């Protein structure tokens, strides 16, 4: 069987979570020891460990069939590759920032200014679409230092917690792009490789679904059953089992974790007891 070649970041913000995702999909592979290419012992894949910026190019050239990168790198690369799945990790944004004492009143501030970034394509397009005439100064890292050393009037870089901006005396003024990790694919995969990718995608979606949902168990007096079912959102047919305790039942269902935290107080008020929320390992739909 042909092997699907997957490129992931060698070391950096995406590495650990990319490896964790593949492992949660059941793929076993040696990891570590500085090897830059490895293969799985139980699934037809080869894993290539690369610099993230190089991944779009390799995927376009079919050297790797698929890869995991940030949407920011996908867009900046302008390569002919396709996002096949958003992966819900490494959320961040690409933002414009200026020295915190700047009197900033809107995007026109950047007219005739110099902005340092590692994302000249994304930023160039953004300025063009917004009719701003600024000079883009390309630097490959430590962008936040640029205004402080007189290299630029502002920067455009990745922001997550905002602490790097803060510790460099900058303030965020515009969001240019919201990003997360994505799975990208070559646009002309041969049939056999595409079918391995489909199998992997099925597993990735099962892992993602499981991460979003939790299995909930609770005990309720029978006279409150209907009310509790009404509180639990989107619950079609919960499992209801009688408890040894007269007049009580145990109710089991699957619920999105996010919604659970919104309704926990309501559930308790309605008489639910012994509430257990359990992680789901895989969810096959
Ligand atoms: N602070 C952050 N929080 C969340 N996600 C981030 C953060 N910084 C970067 N990312 C995301 O992770 C990706 C990789 O970031 P990282 O800083 O490891 O890249 P890099 O330094 O370019 O790595 P490489 O050495 O592989 O070129 C970014 O392209 C972005 O999508
Ligand atoms: O808003 P924050 O939470 O502070 O995160 C933002 C910082 O994180 C990234 O750099 P990273 O720490 O990955 O270092 P790098 O520049 O060496 O890639 C990014 O380039 C920013 O500098
Ligand atoms: Mg990089």
From TrEMBL:
Its cofactor is Mg(2+). Pfam families: HisG (PF01634), HisG_C (PF08029). Keywords: Amino-acid biosynthesis, ATP-binding, Cytoplasm, Glycosyltransferase, Histidine biosynthesis, Magnesium, Metal-binding, Nucleotide-binding, Transferase. It comes from the Bacteria. One of its GO terms (molecular function) is ATP phosphoribosyltransferase activity. The keyword Cytoplasm applies. Feedback inhibited by histidine. Residues 210-282 form the Histidine biosynthesis HisG C-terminal domain. The keyword ATP-binding applies. Its main location: cytoplasm. It catalyses: 1-(5-phospho-beta-D-ribosyl)-ATP + diphosphate = 5-phospho-alpha-D-ribose 1-diphosphate + ATP. Its EC number is 2.4.2.17. It is found in: Cytoplasm. Pathway: Amino-acid biosynthesis; L-histidine biosynthesis; L-histidine from 5-phospho-alpha-D-ribose 1-diphosphate: step 1/9. Residues 51-205 form the ATP phosphoribosyltransferase catalytic domain. Belongs to the ATP phosphoribosyltransferase family. Long subfamily. Catalyzes the condensation of ATP and 5-phosphoribose 1-diphosphate to form N'-(5'-phosphoribosyl)-ATP (PR-ATP). Has a crucial role in the pathway because the rate of histidine biosynthesis seems to be controlled primarily by regulation of HisG enzymatic activity. This is ATP phosphoribosyltransferase. The gene is hisG.
């Amino acid at each position: 069987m042909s092997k699907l070649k997957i490129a992931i970041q060698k070391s950096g913000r995406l590495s650990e979570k990319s490896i964790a995702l593949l492992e949660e999909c059941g793929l076993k592979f040696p990891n570590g020891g500085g090897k830059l290419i490895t293969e799985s012992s139980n699934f037809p894949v080869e894993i290539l460990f690369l610099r993230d910026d190089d991944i779009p190019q390799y995927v376009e050239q079919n050297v790797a069939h698929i890869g995991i990168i940030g949407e920011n790198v996908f867009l900046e690369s302008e390569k002919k590759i396709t996002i096949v799945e958003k992966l819900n990790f490494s959320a961040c944004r690409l933002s414009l920032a200026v020295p915190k004492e700047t009197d900033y009143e809107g995007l026109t501030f950047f007219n005739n200014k110099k902005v340092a970034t590692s994302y000249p394509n994304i930023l160039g397009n953004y300025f063009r679409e917004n009719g701003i005439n600024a000079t883009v100064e390309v630097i490959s890292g430590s962008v936040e230092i640029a205004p402080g050393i007189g290299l630029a009037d502002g920067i455009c870089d990745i922001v997550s917690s905002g602490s790097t901006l803060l510790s460099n005396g900058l303030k965020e003024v515009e969001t240019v792009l919201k990003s997360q990790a994505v799975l990208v694919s070559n646009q002309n995969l041969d049939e056999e490789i595409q079918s391995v990718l489909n199998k992997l995608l099925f597993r990735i979606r099962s892992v993602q679904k499981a991460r979003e949902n939790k299995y909930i168990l609770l005990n309720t007096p029978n006279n409150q059953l209907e009310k509790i079912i009404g509180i639990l959102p989107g619950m079609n047919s919960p499992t209801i089992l009688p408890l040894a305790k007269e007049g009580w039942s145990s109710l089991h269902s699957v619920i999105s974790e996010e919604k659970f935290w919104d309704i926990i107080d309501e559930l308790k008020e309605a008489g639910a007891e012994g509430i257990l929320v359990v992680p789901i390992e895989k969810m096959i739909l």
